[in-house]
């Protein structure tokens, strides 16, 4: 298994979660990585990205609230999510950017009172 996401859960609006993605496999070496999310009935969208050099970028909907990072060994990618909103409810996935065809199982994030 090359991508294993964790850290999701049920949180109230305004709360925080930290997602983790364990990455294995040489094909991810020196690749930009990203977090994506898919809400029910919607397409999978890019949420945040981090380049091999550490530059980051965010979807407008999460800018200022989410922070992507990766450890020095580049085996784990994180997504710190603050000030969560109900519209952030989705299954969150990590993958390279551009994404490889095989995805992990994702981690469910539910934001609800």
Brief overview, please?
Helices cover 0% and strands 47% of the residues. It has strands at 3-6, 9-11, 17-23, 33-38, 44-50, 56-58, 66-70, 76-81, 90-96, 107-111.
* Helix/sheet category: mainly beta
Number of helices: 0
User: Are there runs of 5+ residues with pLDDT below 50, and where?
Assistant: none
How do the strands line up in the largest sheet? Answer: 2-10-9-4-5-6
- The secondary-structure element order is EEEEEEEEEE
- How much of the sequence is in beta strands? over 45%
Give the CA-based shape: globular
Largest sheet, in brief, is: 6 strands, mixed
What does the radius of gyration come to? 13 Å
The tally of beta strands, per DSSP, is: 10
**N-to-C terminal Cα separation, in Å?**
34 Å
What is the percent of helical residues? under 10%
- Mean pLDDT metric: 95
Describe this structure in words.
- By secondary structure, the chain is an all-beta fold.
- The protein contains no helices and 10 strands.
- The strands form 2 sheets. It has a 6-stranded mixed β-sheet with strand order 2-10-9-4-5-6, with no helix packed on it. It has a 4-stranded antiparallel β-sheet with strand order 1-3-8-7, with no helix packed on it.
- Strand 4 (33-38) and strand 5 form a beta hairpin.
- The mean pLDDT is 95.
């Amino acid at each position: 298994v090359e991508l294993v996401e964790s850290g999701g859960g049920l949180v109230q609006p305004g709360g925080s979660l930290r997602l983790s993605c364990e990455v294995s496999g040489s094909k991810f070496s020196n690749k930009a990585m990203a977090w994506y999310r898919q809400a029910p009935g919607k397409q999978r969208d890019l949420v945040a990205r981090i380049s091999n050099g550490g530059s980051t970028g965010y979807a407008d909907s999460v800018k200022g609230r989410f922070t992507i990072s990766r450890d020095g060994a580049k085996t784990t990618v994180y997504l710190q999510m603050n000030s969560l909103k109900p519209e952030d409810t989705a299954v969150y996935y990590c993958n390279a950017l551009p994404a490889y065809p095989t995805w992990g199982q994702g981690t469910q994030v539910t934001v609800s009172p």
